[in-house]
Amino acid sequence: MNHDADLPSITCGCAFHARRRFAATLVAAGASLAVPAWARDGVDVGGESRFTKLVSADQIEQAAAQQYAQMKQQAAQQRALGPDSHPQVVRLRAISQRIIPFSSEWNERARNWKWEVNLIGSKQINAFCMPGGKIAFYTGILEQLQLTDDEVAMVMGHEVAHALREHARERMGKNMATQGAIGLGAAILGLGSIGRSVADMGGQLLTLKFGREDESEADLVGMELAARAGYDPRAGVSLWNKMAQASKGAPPQFMSTHPSGPTRIRDIEANLPRVEGLYAKAAKPPQRFEPPVKK
Hints:
- The protein is mainly alpha-helical.
- It contains eleven helices and three strands.
- It folds into two domains: about 40 residues, no CATH class; about 240 residues.
């Protein structure tokens, strides 16, 4: 329930109501500042990692753009890059256009990202979003799991969340710090070979493994993004049930470092109350798409 309308009559001096008044002041003033987690609806995943400060966002986004361009070129040479007119490319881009407008609340840099969404012909059950908003889905995840639009939005929201929360940048910062490639003082002063290190690690962006904490965080942020975009966040449960079925034997690459299906389903269900109101208020997609025919 939204109590913002009651804010002017609140005279209590407690911290809770003080925070409410501050949030209302931001809204009334039309402030462009990011609203603190305690003053907003939706999930709360805490602040950014200090390790992100060890790597330049500009450099990692540039490295990602280069890797993404190379991937597209290779896919095109193999006739595996979905054309603009492909029904599933149209579908993915339509869903992304509903999710992307909500991205800047989580990362101000996203306003200036040159977003791209592409489809790669591969049986892999996988999808990703590289730093800077470079999204790709493999046909395998759409075809083998027969994803609904709501489920696609959950996958896309999850992958976009990795980019918004700068998990790749954090992971690289941790790797560099562990390996002694850079020191905190050198990073702050802009010294050392940071740029070269990022360039050297750029080739790892397509295969970078995130930790379970990153994956759980991406689940929650992705669920909120999908809900705000008008997609049912409860689809996270059906999505991971499908993933569990597909993971008999060796798990799909998409699940290789992720929390187990039952664990993430419990987390999703526990956080649904935080986003169901957002979904209820959100404008719903004017068009629905069908998954590709399963071969």
